[in-house]
Amino acid sequence: MVKYFAFILRQGIFSGKSPLFMSKKILDALEGTPLSTLQNEISRRRTFAIISHPDAGKTTLTEKFLLYGGAIAQAGEVKGKRARAATSDWMEIEKQRGISVTSSVMQFQHDGYCINILDTPGHQDFSEDTYRTLMAADSAVMVIDGAKGVEPQTRKLFKVCAMRNIPIFTFINKMDRETRDPLELCEEVERELGIDTYAMNWPIGCGKEFQGVYDRQKARILFFSAEGKGRRAASTEVHLDDPAVADHIGEARWRALRDDVELLGAGRDFDMEAIRSGKLSPVFFGSALTNFGIEPFLESFLELTTPPLSRESDSGVVDAFDENFSAFVFKIQANMNKAHRDRIAFMRICSGKFQRDTEYYHMQSGKKLRLSQPQQMLAAEREIIEEAYAGDIIGVFDPGMFAIGDTITVPSRKFKFRGIPTFEPEHFMRVSPKDTMKRKQFIKGTEQIAQEGAIQIFKIPFAGMEEVIVGVVGTLQFDVFEYRMKNEYGVDMRMSGLPYDHLRLISASPCAPKDLTLCADAALLEDFRGRSLIAYSGEWPVGYLLKHNPGLELSESLSMSI
Questions:
Q1: Which of 82, 184, 356, 468 has an alpha carbon within 20 to 30 A of 11's alpha carbon?
Q2: Which letter, b or e, does each residue of 4-43 get, where b requires 16 or more Cβ atoms within 10 Å of its Cβ?
Q3: Are 2-44+56-92+143-304 and 311-409 the same fold in CATH?
């Protein structure tokens, strides 16, 4: 009976208050007899994405998680002239600009848990990559700048999380600088994002006077002191009623802290079920730069999050604890290793156990395959692994057969996971190589980068590949595309803007697409699936097209349904 109770706790089904700080070690003791290896390994997985507005400290926080998990010995600052590049920023352009332009994957062990972190691009121009990454996560950490509060990109990313009802944890960062009132920040999160909040801890001071946090669940004060640049912060634990607190922070601040604690106690109750359903966000305060509050946040986060969640497929719900392996591709990245010019397909394992050199089935091609060199990631660093479990993110070499959204299963069980939507591009450019002798490299580069989902490429019907039309969600993607074509494929390009800002798929046509009556603000394009599309500017052309082409139907979705 005790063993069964522990198993329920592992799966995050229990909704009471008692298991709030039930660590894996305690669960093991409760069980007496350990669960099966498969159940145990899946139970200790935690897979989450870190999201934020640009420059809120997301990548710095990621590095500090790695630091406390023992994955790196010392974190490098992201900012500053003499700073090392962030661990998660592996692409050269990321190091130059100091921002993340592509998602990265990192796995490490901490306190009995196996943690998979998905670091996402903060810039809105790369929101499509972030969306796909969130599809692979079971929970999200939302980083907010304590001085700026909720910013536009935070709102957009939050909506994506809310659509999936995944747990969202809020980390209010940069408490080592002058910030807004903590209560005001919590109220803004509730007002702007439409989610309830529960402060798990409360800051003591801010800016240069930021000294620590009050842990509400354990009724203790944690005072922090720096141990050196890029290293772990030391903490001293003191009870709130200890007279030494007043001596340390001053009588006035001690009284203010007691008042704040009393005020918080009169507010909303902690509700585990609401957290697990994405309706209540636990809020933590700290500073990723100084490491203050990072370790308690990581510990609480791991104890509050669930093991890998079940996934929907076209044949029903797939349980993560099912012994049969299944996974889907959520990201493809070319040229992570410049020496080998390789392509890596990132897979989120959804159920069962993955084993190297085992025969699996690729649903989209209908072919059996063996994945002989599966890799575990720490940003750009890779290690060949023999096995992995539900919740893990692995990378496999892609010979060109994988696409984003593909499903891999065991041959005896065939189904497809729900597809990953494609965003409508809002900016278009006509692109061609300056050197016609580089045509082969040009075609290879544009196709491979398009397969990653970073750009979308189209062609003029009945025209060759001497030039292509590139569509992107944000203009910064053009800069990244141009940089990568030059540095990874050796191709200098001519790029000229086009006046279109909308793209619609032709779902039904009264005649051959080439015979449609078009207006001056619209153009007929073809994607590399052979589908016909209309690019146009403004809303007026849609009415013109439908009026002059009776029977024409345009779809707003560019995605292929499964």
A1: 356
A2: eebbebbbbebeeeebeeeebeebeeebeeebeeebbbbb
A3: no
Q: Are 63 and 75 in contact (CB under 8 A)?
A: yes
Q: What is the pLDDT of residues 463-503, one digit of tens each?
A: 766 789 999 877 888 888 898 899 888 999 999 999 998 89
Q: Give which of 2, 6, 5, 16 is closest to 276, Cα–Cα.
A: 16
Contact 182, 149 (CB under 8 A): no
Residue 33's pLDDT band (cuts 50, 70, 90): very low
Say if domain 2-44+56-92+143-304 classifies as CATH 3.30.450.280: no
pLDDT, tens digit, 9 for 90 and up, residues 183-212: 999 999 999 999 999 999 999 888 888 888
CA distances from 132 to 24, 154, 418 (A): 30, 16, 12
pLDDT higher at 513 or 105: 513
pLDDT digits (tens, 9 = 90+) for 359-374: 999 999 999 999 888 9
Confidence category of residue 227, pLDDT binned at 50, 70, 90: low
Decide: helix, strand or coil at residue 330. strand
DSSP-derived pairing of the beta strands 316-318 and 201-204: unpaired
Which pLDDT belongs to residue 253? Answer: 81
416/530 Cα distance (integer angstroms): 23
Q: Choose between 54 and 150: higher pLDDT.
A: 150
111 near 24, Cβ under 8 Å? yes
DSSP state of 301: H
Cβ atoms of 455 and 445 closer than 8 Å: no
| Assigned token pair, 82 | 């003499």
Distance separating the N- and C-terminal Cα atoms of the chain = 42
SS3 content of the chain, % helix, strand, coil (to 5): 30, 30, 40
The C-alpha atoms of residue 369 and residue 441 are separated, in whole angstroms, by 28
The class level of CATH for 427-555 reads alpha beta
Residue 34 reports pLDDT greater than 60 = no
What's residue 41's pLDDT? 94
Mention the CATH class of domain 311-409.
mainly beta
Scan for tokens 């691009």, then name that residue: 121
Query: Are the beta carbons of 230 and 75 closer than 8 angstroms?
Result: yes
SS3 (DSSP) at 393: strand
List the chain domain ranges: 2-44+56-92+143-304, 311-409, 427-555
